[in-house]
Specification:
Elements: H1 3-26, H2 32-46, H3 54-58, E1 62-63, H4 65-74, H5 79-86, E2 87-89, E3 96-98, H6 121-125, H7 138-144, H8 149-163
Antiparallel strand pairs: 1-3, 2-3
Helix pairs in contact: 1-7, 1-8, 2-8, 4-5
The structure holds iron/sulfur cluster (SF4) (2 copies).
């Protein structure tokens, strides 16, 4: 999988695919969630996250307090110690986020997460393909098209499916 090539394609196609997502947000096609599930399976057959890791390298998840506590405890740290070392509050929306990228839990050699079983729900749900509130988060999905190859492939396939 050539991540750079997919990023370039994502940048080129973002506008067109964003318009398509807007259209389905306004008039949601029948059976969208089922279609999303099928398209997600096709997407994951093509995309290898371990060859990419852009989400962990370039974005930050949002953490719930209980998730911070869980990870801190796992590492033998107090909530405050972990928070002060790695996290901050986003002044725009009050979310708890990483201070810097890449994420402190990403192994840069093999692109694996060292707290995989304990990772925040935000990481588990990313890249949002099968969320019940898909249309409510489609603006986030649109923004991710140039930086998440899976999102690009998923939206392209969805467009192909719904427009044919
Ligand atoms: S979810 Fe997207 S950005 Fe994250 S590793 Fe997979 S393809 Fe890359
Ligand atoms: S916690 Fe793990 S999955 Fe989540 S951003 Fe960090 S490295 Fe990636």
């Amino acid at each position: 999988m050539n991540v750079n090539k997919l990023e370039r394609r994502g940048a080129q196609k973002k506008k067109e695919l964003k318009k398509f997502l807007k259209r389905i947000e306004k008039k949601s096609p029948k059976g969208l969630l089922k279609t999303n599930a099928e398209v997600a399976v096709e997407t994951w057959a093509e995309v290898d996250c371990l060859a990419c890791a852009n989400c962990c390298k370039k974005m930050t998840p949002t953490f719930k307090k209980a998730e911070v506590k869980r990870i801190a405890t796992h590492l033998g740290l107090s909530y405050k110690e972990y928070f002060d070392k790695y996290l901050e509050v986003d002044q725009d929306n009050g979310d708890i986020v990483n201070k810097s990228t890449p994420c402190q839990h990403l192994n840069m050699k093999d692109h694996k997460c060292d707290v995989y079983e304990l990772r925040p729900a935000d990481c588990r749900l990313f890249p949002h393909f099968q969320r019940k509130d898909f249309n409510d988060v489609s603006y986030v999905i649109a923004e991710n098209i140039p930086r998440c190859p899976a999102t690009l492939v998923f939206v392209e396939k969805l467009q192909e499916r719904l427009m044919s």
